[in-house]
Specification:
alpha/beta; Rossmann fold; five-stranded parallel beta sheet; 9 helices; Rossmann-like_a/b/a_fold; DUF218
């Protein structure tokens, strides 16, 4: 019964309701003008597919499988890339919080620190007027997780992955590091590796924050519209576009 309710909700609430409305317009147009109706039907189907977890998991999963997570970190510094933060939101020891992907990266890096004792660079600035400064928030939270302040090097000016790479390379050179362990979301690691190589570094890729389960199972809910799937599809397409741009425009 619970799955039937979930199925019904997916077509009553956004984004599924928009597919139903578009299909209603297709039926209405079909009687008077079939060519526009066929075009609208094709657009509706593409929109529907982009909303389904089966498509979003396939797209994001193909990015996540490009690099394997190594069994151990091998380098002289852990580099974490930011992925969003809020400002003015309450935290246990201050204000500002890391967003979901960035928080997962931070937690994974803190665990790596406990295993290796390697110093940590967190790269990420304040991207928007109402977002938090990622590196400053990350430094406070890493200290709260027990990492000594002297082992944390915040790089708080970068606004995108290209700047992450360039500014991190400069900070590493300043402190005598040369072998970064690059920690970022698995969907983001391929583009990050390209940008860091452009900056003259050869990192060890350490993907974390996986979005798609392995192996993927198929069931009814995988084919119903989901706001989360829309977000994941958009995220994956952004990464594909960014990866192409990074390779073509070094």
């Amino acid at each position: 019964m619970i799955y039937l309710i979930k199925f019904a909700y997916s077509f009553v609430l956004p984004p599924g309701i928009f597919v139903i409305l578009l299909l209603g317009m297709v039926v209405w147009l079909w009687k008077s003008s079939r060519r526009p109706a066929v075009v609208l039907l094709a657009v509706s189907l593409l929109l529907y597919l982009s909303m389904t977890p089966v498509v979003s998991d396939l797209l994001i999963g193909s990015l996540e499988r490009q690099y394997k997570q190594p069994s151990a970190a091998e380098g002289d510094v852990i580099v974490i890339l930011g992925g969003g933060a809020t400002s003015g939101t309450p935290d246990l020891d201050g204000q500002g919080n890391m967003s979901g992907p960035a928080a997962n990266r931070l937690l994974a890096a803190a665990r790596l620190y406990r295993q290796t004792g390697l110093p940590v660079i967190f790269s990420g600035g304040q991207v928007f007027a109402d977002s938090g400064n990622e590196a400053d928030i990350a430094r406070r939270q890493l200290i709260g997780l027990g990492i000594p302040a002297e082992d944390i090097l915040p790089e708080n000016r970068s606004l995108n992955t290209e700047q992450n790479a360039v500014n991190t390379a400069a900070l590493m050179q300043e402190h005598g590091f040369s072998r970064p362990v690059l920690v970022t979301s698995a969907f983001h690691i391929a583009r990050s590796m390209v940008q860091f190589e452009h900056a003259g570094l050869t990192p060890q890729p350490f993907p974390v924050d996986y979005q798609a389960s392995r192996p993927m199972s198929l069931y009814v809910s995988k084919f119903t519209p989901s706001a989360g799937a829309v977000s994941t599809t958009g995220l994956a397409l952004k990464e594909y576009l960014g990866l192409v741009a990074a390779k073509l425009l070094p």
